[in-house]
Each structure stands twice: as C-alpha cells, then as structure tokens.
Amino acid sequence: MIDFGLRHAWPGRNGTGTVLDIAFLAPAGATALFGPSGCGKSTVVATMAGLLRADAAYVAVDGEVLTDTDAR
After folding, report:
1. 48-69 pLDDT, tens per residue?
2. Is the separation of the CB atoms in 22 and 42 below 8 Å?
3. Beta strand extents in 1-72 (DSSP E only)
4. Distance of CA 5 to CAs 21, 43, 72, Å?
C-alpha cells in the first residue's frame, strides 16, 4: 500500500501562482495516475522518487515512511 500526501506551491506573476494539494492511499498492485496535461502527474511521481523537494510531503510504502517533511 502507498500512503501519499503532497502540497507544493509555485509562485506566479503578479502574486498569482499554482498550488498542488493531493493525498491518496493506493492498495497493493498496479496504480495508474491519469488526468489532463498540467494537473500534477509528473510532480507526484517526482516527489515519490525523491527528485522534487516539496513544501510538504508524506510518502510511505507498506508502512515504511520514505518522506515526511513534518518529521524532517
């Protein structure tokens, strides 16, 4: 099982920006992410792989915590 949570903000022009706030539990087996271009699929995968240091993230696989920004 994958327990995943992510919150990340990208600054924009004139005080606007984009925030991705997502959390899910995925049971054992194959899991697919799908959605329109720009919705955050690659950001989710990059966070899981440790390639993106998100503002806040939690990743646990089968109960083993891989990332927990709150606990550092």
Report:
1. 898 988 999 999 999 999 999 9
2. no
3. 2-11, 17-26, 56-61, 64-68
4. 8, 12, 15
